[in-house]
């Protein structure tokens, strides 16, 4: 297989080194020699430690300098892109105003006997440190360009594709699906290539696929393995709500495709400029931070726009980059590998110069960065919903609250519960308070409507003389209780150590007409209101939950305690961290808690004795997990 192309053919004319015909080369040279093209003067790189303060001044100062900067970028003259608008190339452009420049466009190899087949809407992008062609920024393929897309992957030996859009968003096609529909299926692409869907590993915010790309036109069939990382947490409009999830995605990419890799990293969204430019710019600056300890957003974005038009397409994306880098500086490097886990946990227990332990400092950082993500609780605070909240300050935010099917009464869709991501599944959990007498029917409606297979209860009915939960299940085996249209029957009860397992059968409407919905209620009885149970109790609960989820088809799980945040948040953190440790060999307490708090504010309460005990004994969870069958 040949390496990245230097020469190609455009309209039967031989390309020069930068891949444009001679007359276009002259246009480009004239453009870059024109001093009027330098509209934005460089500012000095910002030292990393000063960047958060710099962003506050630029973003919130009276002069709105970030807005001015981005506006000025739009005034830069653009190099010519005449090849893209040639009649035989127009069908290969998704949009009629997003084209690659002549000088930096990807040139495919000429195909004997086929005229004008070298064009694709994609650009070669230089990376950090002057590295040539570190990236390919491309539009999402259209129907007629799928064959050229895979030809580009083959000719440039691109081992990694990053996809930043869904195929369809808000009812509009953003990118054709250019890989087989089902795992292990194959897709013939043109006359030369075949793509086989080899493997798929889903995560909460991206999917990691592997494809086998075969070139059938060679005398001996050759193939290459292509990693396909599909980031799915970018909304139809706007930017991701958690920039650190995108940064974590980039870090994962760089473990698979190191900066030192000789082949380019292929990045595409729909147009290949907005989301694509945002990710590439973040990746470049993360390398700058690591190497130089400085940040130069404007400098690098100007460089990107000299290579592909409209890279980082919106003011919102430009601010997102600044805020994300600022948050990265504040949070620091919090990911810890398995080999260093014991030492890291020991250091987190130590007190620093100002008297706080590392865990306490991390919780302070979480509070600080969370304050930049304002949330609203308007639904929870409605007059007709207030008596459904056990505590007035433990509420679901409007964005991620669970919404029940609406009934005739105001507030009939409300329950104090929130969707929270798992390690490998978006919205895998519902975090909620234990039911009140007046919310039991709503609780079972939620379990039924969202087809939950397991409910984990982390408290007892009475704790320290007060109610933590009403009894929301039938007390005798074989007994049924009716809640509205739902009938709940207790099938069996088993106790093993600190864990009580109740198997319940739920039927909606007439039993003879509807199939029963089986629910497994796992109650840990040894978790005190303040503090933690023995680590082995939590690990045994996780072990039992994991095996039960597998039997239930990995349906959504409800996690609850008296307030729906303290014990619930701690359990979710430990569960997700152990799962990540098993899969990736790393943990990250800070980012896990911060991400969960975006979905349900207050998860893991650092003011309680529970957090202080977790701080004192975290290592026990990560030494005992090997005793369990699922690890």
TrEMBL record:
Lineage top rank: taxon: Eukaryota
Keyword Hydrolase: yes
UniProt KW keywords: Hydrolase, Protein phosphatase, Receptor
Domain named Tyrosine-protein phosphatase: residues: 66-328, 359-612
Pfam family, one: Y_phosphatase
Catalysis: reaction(s): O-phospho-L-tyrosyl-[protein] + H2O = L-tyrosyl-[protein] + phosphate
A Gene Ontology molecular function term of the record: protein tyrosine phosphatase activity
Record-listed E.C. numbers: 3.1.3.48
Keyword flag Aminoacyl-tRNA synthetase: no
Residue ranges of every copy of the Tyrosine specific protein phosphatases domain listed in the record: 244-319, 536-611
Enzyme class label: hydrolase
Name recorded for this polypeptide: protein-tyrosine-phosphatase
Species in which this protein is naturally found: Geodia barretti
